[in-house]
Design goal:
2 domains; mainly alpha
């Protein structure tokens, strides 16, 4: 049975919309968990958010809802099921555990019997995936080199912020501004659009105050502020980390375009 282009686009649109709904439900859990201990009502809101997420997840992650026979139908070569699988691989929706589902479907499709059109699409997808892995591996190798070059600074950054930086995330770091953007992305906050906004964020007095804080107070602050960091908070604390790691004058302002590592081929 051939699936028309219109039906295919409907499937892809549904996957994108369903992913957005999963992400909304997942965010709701994180929003309510912060206040669940304030009162019985807040605790109930968190529990309801958890229940709704788990109840709806199986019906949302794949069009038609997941069932025990989904992967078997792929292996059996059912055209409609393979179409759903291929659309999922092509769209690559992003949500909780989507990477696991994507890789599982990919492995099943490698063993499935497909018609000529589906086989051609899958071959193109595999080629793109191989190219993506090549680029990702290069980024990971670059990130490893960044860790070697910037270990004192990056170690301090991870003490201050409630994040763990991967090699892939660090692959493009050359300047302090690059590292600032990486930290903002890890904290899921939007960095300023203009470089001038960074230069005007922090006074020398506030920078000196942050630089003087102890490790323990910073960890408590990070835990308390998790999920509520502002761009100003991040830049202030990152600036303090740079000054500490490189033993600079505490009254010095940190230039966002300061090169911390020369860009080179790894």
């Amino acid at each position: 049975m051939q699936i028309g282009m219109h039906q295919r686009e409907q499937l892809r649109t549904m996957m994108i919309e369903n992913a957005a709904e999963i992400n909304r439900l997942h965010r709701r859990i994180h929003e309510t968990v912060k206040r669940r201990s304030e009162s019985e009502k807040r605790g109930l809101e968190w529990q309801q958010a958890c229940n709704e997420f788990h109840r709806r997840y199986s019906e949302l992650w794949i069009p038609g809802g997941s069932d025990t026979g989904f992967y078997e139908r792929i292996l059996e070569g059912d055209p409609a099921t393979i179409e759903v699988a291929l659309c999922f691989l092509e769209v690559r929706p992003y949500f909780f555990r989507s990477g696991y589902h994507w890789k599982t479907i990919l492995q099943k499709c490698k063993r499935a019997h497909m018609d000529a059109d589906q086989a051609e699409r899958f071959a193109r997808l595999l080629a793109k995936y191989a190219e993506w892995k090549k680029i990702r591996n290069a980024s990971v190798n670059h990130g490893k080199a960044v860790w070697r070059d910037l270990w004192p600074l990056l170690n301090r950054v991870q003490d201050i912020f409630p994040i763990r930086l991967s090699n892939t995330q660090l692959g493009s770091v050359v300047t302090i501004k690059d590292l600032y953007n990486v930290v903002c992305n890890a904290l899921k906050i939007q960095p300023p659009c203009r470089e001038a906004d960074l230069n005007g964020m922090i006074s020398e007095l506030r920078l000196a105050t942050l630089a003087a804080e102890t490790d323990m107070s910073e960890r408590k602050y990070a835990a308390w502020r998790y999920g509520t960091w502002t761009p100003e908070d991040v830049w202030a604390r990152l600036s303090a980390a740079v000054i500490e790691a490189y033993k600079l004058d505490p009254s010095r302002s940190v230039d966002p375009d300061t090169v911390v590592r020369e860009k080179r081929d790894e």
